[in-house]
Every structure is written in structure tokens, then in C-alpha cells.
User: Fold this.
Amino acid sequence: MDLQLQGKRALVTGSTAGIGLAIAGGLAREGAGVIINGRTAQRVDQSVAALNKSGGLGKVEGLAADLGTAGGTRTAIERFPEVDILVNNLGIFEAKLFEDIPDADWLRFFEVNILSGVRLSRHYLPGMKKT
Assistant:
């Protein structure tokens, strides 16, 4: 299938494993340049290497930044000021009973799961071309 992604750049948040890595791999196979994101350089480097071995057509780059923080989001925007495709895949959870989750954890979940996408979308969305 040709999704006509050649020459496009995609940022996939939370993409060092699982669904995020699969999405990034699919985009790279379609010819998009892909930015792999995770919190540690080691995990990002491993994922970039794995995608490069898989033979995708698109350039694969890495971004080690905690996008669940305002500072991490600033790092992403400074390094990659423009993207054509944004996949807000980043998300966390803890296997606890509802009544055992303290307010501090709820605030952290909100910042990572919601605000990371809001911050990135607020920056990238106005510049994305509608096609």
C-alpha cells in the first residue's frame, strides 16, 4: 500500500516499544521520516537501530526526552520544530485499585497522558498542512 508518506516527517511519542514502535515502523516502511521518542537515550538508540535494520524507506531519528514534562516538550520542539505527522502515543498507568491511587499519581497520569499531547498538538497542529 502506498500512503504517499515519502518526504513527510512523523513524531511518534512513546515509541521505543509496543504499539508506538509498531506505528513508527509502519510509517518508516511507507517512506516517512520517523522520530522515535522515549525517556532514555539507550532505549531510543536501541529502537532506532532496530527500525534501521528492518529496512524501512524513511530516515529514522531519535529523541530522548520525557514528553510528560513541559521541559521535555520544549526539548522536542527545539530539536524538531516542524513535523507533518504527530502520533500522541505516550501513556502510562499503574495496576492499582482505584481507591489506592493518590492524588499525586493522578496528577502525573494527567500530565503524561493528556498534557503531553496537548502541548505537542498546540505547537505542531497550526503548522501542519491539510491534505
Observations:
- The CA atoms of residues 37 and 63 lie 5 Å apart.
